[in-house]
Amino acid sequence: GLVAAESEQVTLPMNPDGSVHHHFWIRASADCPDSATIAVDVNVASLPPMRSEILLRDCVIVVAASFEQNLFILDRAALQLRQLAQTLSGRRPTEAEIDQIRSTLVDVKGRV
């Protein structure tokens, strides 16, 4: 199936031109058919809710060694750092978590 990599509910600021840009990270299992549908609901204050849908097979696939792949790598690193920040939010990490943090940071640094 399909699983969101981050919290499914996010609050995003609008750009000065009234647009919003955000990447949604979705994990697809190996047995997930490419005909699966990904749906995103957008709620904006004082506007009716909007829904956007796309087939898994129509999602962006990046070409190796392309500019888009480099952006993908940076965006994935940012995802990992956001997940790390959420894990640590408001508490002191255990020794095992500190080791995992080091590993994650080394991995992110190596890719960036």
Overview of this protein structure:
The chain is of the alpha+beta class and 112 residues long. 35% of the residues lie in helices and 16% in strands. The chain has helices at 67-88, 95-111, and strands spanning 2-4, 26-28, 37-42, 50-55. The strands form 2 sheets. It has a two-stranded antiparallel ribbon with strand order 1-2. A two-stranded antiparallel sheet has the order 3-4.
Number of helices in the DSSP assignment: 2
- The helix content, as a percent range, equals 25-40%
Structural class, judged by helices and strands? alpha+beta
- Major β-sheet profile: 2 strands, antiparallel
Major sheet: order of its strands? 1-2
Q: In whole angstroms, how far apart are the ends?
A: 29 Å
Features:
112 residues; alpha+beta; two-stranded antiparallel ribbon; 2 helices; globular
List the helices and strands and how they pair.
Elements: E1 2-4, E2 26-28, E3 37-42, E4 50-55, H1 67-88, H2 95-111
Antiparallel strand pairs: 1-2, 3-4
Structure at a glance:
With 112 residues, the chain is an alpha+beta fold. The chain has helices at residues 67-88, 95-111, and strands at residues 2-4, 26-28, 37-42, 50-55.
